[in-house]
Design goal:
The complex is a heterodimer of chains A (313) and B (238). With 313 residues, chain A is mainly alpha-helical. Chain A contains 13 helices and 4 strands. Chain B has 238 residues and is α/β, with parallel strands linked by helices. Chain B contains 9 helices and 10 strands. In chain B, helix 3 crosses helix 4 and helix 4 packs across helix 5. The complex binds adenosine-5'-diphosphate and magnesium ion (MG). The site of adenosine-5'-diphosphate has 11 residues of chain B, from strand 2 and helix 1.
Chain lengths: 313, 238
């Protein structure tokens, strides 16, 4: 069997067996369910940043687009989970197409700023239309609405499996992209977009596809986050939720399929432990991030790939 | 001789200004099918700019480009290239973090019936890089990187291959190898070769065009150009 398949399906198997064998305490089970959905978000982010080389500072816009599409449709329109997920996926895809079309008129630093601005507009819209979104306070999705195929998604064990399924789908999709000729063109654009253009690739269109894929995965992750944890709030559309996926990817490994998971686990528990020690936990987090970025510039997995395992996709 | 059938590409009054500098000025140029055309001229004459106008890397200020009978002046660069214009960079431009294999596979673009792996191996064995197929291309020597750049041009299987100073910075033995390769490629592809090394030009080109301050000052076969008094004054330096 191929090494890359063993690595990735092995990682998924470990996540499955941790649950099956009852290794998790309730606390860690809940954490990991969150981490898995957030890592799916990180995968979406990585498609654009890690593979295509486009740094967005506004991905919270896509995460919250999915979050609110599903949350509001459940809350106001009585959609069931399946319907709301389909709506969220379609809405995120369309939304990414529009935002991508506009934002890709810029490159480099302007692209970062434009995406940041768009996401701020999104955030302010959520606050402004408080009558529908209930603004800062947000919406709690009742347990009775969080049922899929008669499974209660608020049950911690079912929730963990659901999160694992979502994460696995995103991971497999990412792995497929990384191995496909489409993904190779994205990487070529990241490495040397001038050359990719001069080889006859429609670089602009490829970038637009990358934004759509990235935004749709992020939106799907947002929708699942709202449904699994029962809360939809404006804080998910704010700047920190644009910066988190960037940090997960930077720490875990830029342009690696498993990087976002590694980064999300690392960050989650780093914040968790640091806040046990001191109220000023962001100092510890900051210093640790500094050390990681100084000594593993490519992120943990990225560094391993660079030094030892060239085959990691 | 000048029937539309045997002209591969021509330009009409094509020009490019950079902030007032006329880098290319009203050039009318033709290249015939299956020839090796050398484009010579002193540094800064506008050679790179001129070929960039042909492949669309730079937009023309005025004029038009016709390729295979079709006006391509308004086509974006990627379409001109998929239509059959290949371009290799004067300054080596490869994907340094990707393997030699991936570089060539990217140049092939669409998989033909042959299968990607076979096509890559075929091109690499022609330029003699087959044994380095799995190497990171940034780790290749300069000479090998130039060969890879050429291999990527070949892999595109263009109708017109533009080579911008391919032998720049190579050793004499490497240049000999390049001459053979270019001759080889020319059996199936028209070649527009920008070249400083007059020995290379004289030994492989069929015809020569001379560019000077953005204008074509002479056009013709080797003997004509060598004996042209204007060219001698402007470029060959007697
Ligand atoms: N992007 C650019 N912006 C401004 N001036 C340029 C640019 N590219 C080339 N030039 C100028 O155009 C002229 C022709 O340059 P170039 O085409 O590179 O010449 P050659 O390839 O014959 O050495 C030079 O004077 C150069 O300085
Ligand atoms: Mg030049």
């Amino acid at each position: 069997m191929r090494k890359d398949l063993i690595l990735h399906f092995g990682a998924l198997a470990i996540l499955l067996f941790l649950e099956l064998l009852g290794v998790f305490s309730d606390y860690h089970q809940g954490n990991f369910a969150r981490i898995l959905v957030l890592a799916a978000y990180g995968i979406g982010y990585n498609v654009l940043f890690g593979y295509t080389g486009l740094l967005s500072l506004g991905h919270a816009l896509f995460f919250s687009a999915g979050l609110y599409a599903s949350g509001l449709s459940i809350y106001h329109l009585d959609y069931n989970v399946g319907q709301s997920l389909i709506l969220a996926i379609c809405f995120s895809a369309f939304f990414s197409l529009v935002i991508g079309y506009l934002a890709l008129r810029t490159v480099g630093v302007s692209f970062m700023i434009v995406t940041l601005m768009f996401s701020q507009v999104g955030y302010l819209c959520i606050l402004y239309f408080g009558g529908i979104t209930r603004g800062d306070e947000g919406i709690v999705i009742q347990q009775s609405s969080r049922v899929f195929l008669s499974l209660d998604l608020s049950d911690p064990t079912i929730r963990y499996y659901a999160a694992l399924i979502i994460f696995s789908l995103c991971l497999i999709f990412n792995l497929w992209i990384a191995k496909s000729s489409f993904g190779r063109v994205l990487i070529a654009i990241r490495e040397n977009s001038d050359r990719a253009l001069m080889l006859g690739y429609n670089v602009h269109l490829y970038k637009l596809f990358a934004v759509i894929i990235s935004g749709t995965i992020s939106g799907l992750a947002g929708a699942c986050y709202g449904i699994l944890f029962g809360y939809v709030g404006a804080s998910f559309a704010a700047v920190p939720y644009s910066i988190f996926p960037l940090l997960w990817v930077l720490i875990g490994g830029v342009g690696t399929v498993l990087g976002p998971l590694v980064g999300a686990i690392f960050m989650f528990y780093l914040i968790d432990y640091a806040s046990d020690i001191t109220d000023a936990y962001m100092i510890i987090v900051g210093i640790t991030l500094l050390v990681v970025t100084l000594y593993a510039r490519r992120g943990l997995l990225g560094e391993l790939r660079y030094r030892y395992f060239k085959w990691i996709p | 001789m000048d029937t539309l059938d045997n002209i591969l590409l021509y330009t009409e009054n094509i020009s490019k200004n950079f902030q007032g500098i006329k880098a290319v000025n009203n050039v009318n140029f033709k290249i015939y099918k299956n020839e090796i055309r050398a484009l010579i001229g002193p540094n800064g004459a506008g050679k790179t700019t001129f070929v960039s106008l042909l492949c669309g890397r730079i937009n023309a200020s005025a004029g038009k480009v016709v390729f295979c009978g079709e006006d391509i002046s308004d086509l974006p660069v990627f379409e001109r290239i998929s239509n059959g214009i290949g371009y290799t960079f004067q300054i080596t431009s490869i994907f340094v973090n990707l393997t030699v294999y991936e570089n060539v596979a990217l140049a092939i673009r669409k998989d033909n019936s042959n299968g990607e792996e076979n096509s890559v191996s075929e091109v690499l064995s022609k330029v003699g890089l087959l044994d380095r197929i799995e190497q990171r291309s940034g780790d290749l020597s300069y000479g090998h990187q130039r060969l890879l750049e050429l291999a990527m041009g070949m892999a595109q299987k263009p109708k017109l291959l533009i080579l911008d100073e391919p032998t720049q910075g190579l050793s004499d033995s490497e240049i000999e190898n390049f001459k053979k390769l270019i001759k080889d490629i020319s059996s199936s592809t028209t070649i527009l070769l920008i070249e400083h090394n007059m020995d290379v030009v004289m030994s492989i080109a069929d015809n020569i065009s001379v560019l000077h301050f953005g204008e074509i000052i002479a056009d013709g076969d080797k003997e004509t150009i060598q004996n042209d008094p204007i060219v001698q004054k402007a470029y060959l330096g007697d």
